[in-house]
Here is the input.
Amino acid sequence: MQRGEHLLALTTDHQHDLSGPAAHEAATRLAEFHHRTGFTGSVVTDRHRLRRVLARHDPEVYPGTYAICVFNPDKALCRPRIPPTGSRSVPVPLDCKPLECKNVALIADNTRALSAEAERLDTRLRGGPVLPPLLHADLKRRRDAIGAFLAQAAGGSE
Ligand code: SF4
Here is the structure.
């Protein structure tokens, strides 16, 4: 799915499902984007129009597996870059820090992916062979950080 279509689907299907520190900002930007497209639902009736609206009024919301980036370069914990053909900086998803960055919003798919990651880490920590102490501590820290982050997001605190 193209980003424009993904954003429309977020607006229509996950509007009330957003959590995380940038949830409110995500909802505002997505509603504005949807309004500009002029579509009444998530069905794309004019792909050219959608591309035009995205090019002119990009909400700078980037859906990902573990988080939705509601990009604000001043808060970004990755190192935003300026693409060769663009004038504005963009986030770097490969360097994303979803547990710490204030630009993060979540939908259920993201929390499921994070929970699955925490379970994978847990399985690794409990299964053999015995891990080197530093690696064990690293994995445990990450598993616990994911758990704390999800609990905070579920509680609606920022
Ligand atoms: S760290 Fe992740 S959420 Fe934060 S700005 Fe970068 S890509 Fe977006």
